[in-house]
C-alpha cells in the first residue's frame, strides 16, 4: 500500500502539487490522470524519491520513505523507451541489477529464471532486445524491476510515443501483466481512454490539485467538479438558452454527455429545435454537431441509415435525457 499524507511539492516559489492525500492499495492498478503540466508526473517522482516533498509524508507498505533515497524505496520505474541494454540478452538485462548488487551466481540464476517465468518471457531469455516485440520489451523492463524484489512499479506515460494501434495493444499487455504478476502499478497519463480502460481506480489532477479519485465509472457518471466532467470523457456545457428551454436552474452549470443527446424528427412536439452544423462518421458511431437555439451541442449516436442521411443545414429536434444532466454549483 502507498499513502500520501498532505504531500506537497514546490519548485522555488511555485507550488507544483498542493497538499494531497492519496491511498493506493497493494496490487492495485492506479492511474494519475490530468493535462500536461498538472503535477501528475511530479507526484509520481515524489513517490519514487526523485523529487523532495515540501511537506507531508509518503509511506510504502507502512514504511515512512519520505526522507529515504530513491534507490532504497523498493520501487521500480518503467520508462518510455524501456532503457534496455541492446548488446545484452533478455536474461542478462534482467540480471544486471543483481550483478551490480554483487549477488552470487546461483542467486542470480534462480531469481532470473523465476521472474522470466512469472512475466511469461522465459522462452526469449537468449534473445537481444531488437529481436523482441514492443510488448515483450515491456515485459523485460518490468522483469528487471521485479527481480530486485520490487513490488511497486511506476509508469510515466510509457505509451505516449506509440501510434494508436500499437498503443491499444500495449495497454492491454501492461494490464494483463500487472494482473498476472500482481504488482502494484502507478500509471501516469493524460489520455482519458487509456486511464478509463486500464485502471482499478484513478485520481484526476488539475493545476497541482487533486480534483477527484474513484473508479472509472464513478468519475464518468458522477463527476465531482466541472473539470472532471469535461476532462473524463466528452461533455457538452449546456448554454443559457437551451437551459431556459429545458427549465434548468439558471444559477447552476449544466452538462450532458454526447451519447445522452438524442435526435428526433423535426415534427417531434417534445424536442428542442436544432440545425445540423456538421457530421463526423466514426464507423460504428456518428458524431453530430448541432446548433440548438444558436448554441453548440454535440450528440453521438450509433451509425445507421437514418443517421447516414443527415447533412449540414438539416432541421431536427433534440432531446436531452434530463436524468443524465450533470449539474454543478457556480463558484461563489
What is shown here, in short?
By secondary structure, the chain is an alpha+beta fold. It has helices at residues 40-48, 90-100, 105-118, 134-146, 164-181, 192-198, 216-221, 226-231, 240-245, 305-308; strands at residues 2-11, 14-24, 29-33, 55-60, 63-64, 75-78, 152-156, 184-189, 201-206, 209-214, 236-237, 252-256, 261-264, 272-281, 285-292, 295-302, 315-320, 326-329.
General description of the model:
By secondary structure, this protein is an alpha+beta fold. Helices cover 28% and strands 33% of the residues. The strands form four sheets. Strands 6-7-8-3-9-10 form a six-stranded mixed β-sheet, with helices on both faces. Strand 14 (272-281) and strand 15 (285-292) form a beta hairpin. The longest helix is centred in the middle third of the chain and has 18 residues, at 164-181. The model has no long low-confidence stretch (mean pLDDT 90).
